Amino acid sequence: MKWTIKESTYIVKDRWISLRADECLMPDGRIIAPFYVYEYPDWINVVPVTDSNEIILIRQYRHGIQDVILELPSGVVDPDETDPSVTAQRELLEETGYDSATIIPLSTLYPNPDKQTNAVHAFLALHAVCKQEQTLDESEQIEVVKVPMNEIHTLLKHNRIPQAMHVAALFHALTYLGQ
Questions:
Q1: Would the pTM count as exceeding 0.85?
Q2: Which uninterrupted H or E stretch holds 72?
């Protein structure tokens, strides 16, 4: 069932995204061209939980949908980071000021395996404590929001956390925690 790539041509290639057009040979001899593939770096999502049973969420503007939404701390795995758990700890500290000595891998999922190459790694950060001020990137404006664990199901039920991969991470975290 696997396709053979006969030729690839990059349409866009930079540090954030690469878009290539593949010419693919299917096992039955048919050619599919162009078949567009987005090459994104891997991402991480973190579900930070405090000892007071609060989940640390963030609120920020997302230009793709032109709205301010509630979501998890998250970010791109940098090229020099070979362990996504290191990225999870770094992004948690940068975006929220919170730190955790207990980072637990929850899942590795693919946001769109038909057209994208990247994985999204979800982590649970237990015993999260505020250690410093946020250290945000120039394009980030992030508000930290503490939500009692028993309110997360209501937020999910009413679509208050609309980022699909964050919903999946919360599902895995709540399952892990027996919630």
A1: yes
A2: none
